[in-house]
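Section 4.2 – Deliverable D4.2 (structural model, holo form)

The reporting period included a commitment to supply a predicted holo structure for the target in complex with S-adenosylmethionine. Inputs used:
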Amino acid sequence: MIKLDTFRYALSSYSKFLWRSTNAHGIHSPFVYDLVTKCFYDQKKYPQYAILHTIRKELGRSNHIIQVLDFGAGSRAPGLQKSQTRRVKKMLSSAATSAKRQRLFVRLVQYFEPENILELGTHLGMGTLAIKLGIPEAEITSVEGCQNTFEFTKNNIERWLSKTMPADKPLKSGQIKLVNSSFAEYFEKRSKDRDAQQKISSQKFDLIYLDGHHNGPATLDYFEQIKRQVHKDSLVIIDDIHWSQSMTAAWNKIIKDPQVTVSIDTYFWGLIFFRKEQAKEHFVVRV
Ligand SMILES: C[S@@+](CC[C@H](N)C(=O)[O-])C[C@H]1O[C@@H](n2cnc3c(N)ncnc32)[C@H](O)[C@@H]1O
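Output (structure tokens):
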């Protein structure tokens, strides 16, 4: 059961979203119109969807128990917030990227073709996997603080990908880099390496998915770090922007940032672009 105040906030923020949101018809920016019509609303059934579905079914049946170290803001379900031992099938239903958003990930990465991707919050690997299947040639770094979750997912991802990657696009080592670290330590190490002139750490990311530690002030801190890791054509996706009042407040601050030009609120995900050729504009779009 979801706590009453969380439930009330979700209800009121979702009603506000529905009231303010539009579909493609209300969008005048060609960049956003194309994204919405050719990617968000693309109805084609891509072969990756079936693979993702099979893997979700496997995890959805898993009674495996992980001793979890909670690095983030917990889960919406109160039972899970306190508990340190979590059943994989519960973790899947309470905190993983949903099947619908996994499919959107496949379309998004096929549409933008990012080469260098960072995910903050690996969890059971649902985002990592959708991205990898969508764009096998990209390099993905995914950061997870909980060591047991990290190990469980590392083994699974290797097993799944060895079975599912197309024969003409085998997984090359180094293309998925799973890192067991807190987000703060990861950024700290990256900036130290950059100072030490290590080429790999001065590379900017084309896509960053922030999906962990859903807390307003923490999200703002990570966004400051993220801004140093992007270029003008990068896309940043922030998960659960309306998870709580403090997350909505953080999102409202982020979209006002002068470096941000286009921002899109899809209720669950906030998408941010830094395109210099585009006038600053905010969109609220139903996906
Ligand atoms: C919502 S889940 C991520 C879901 C995943 N991205 C997916 O696509 O299914 C958040 C994950 O981030 C991790 N996490 C949260 N805060 C963190 C932090 N500050 N440092 C490292 N990991 C963190 C949690 O342990 C959890 O596994």
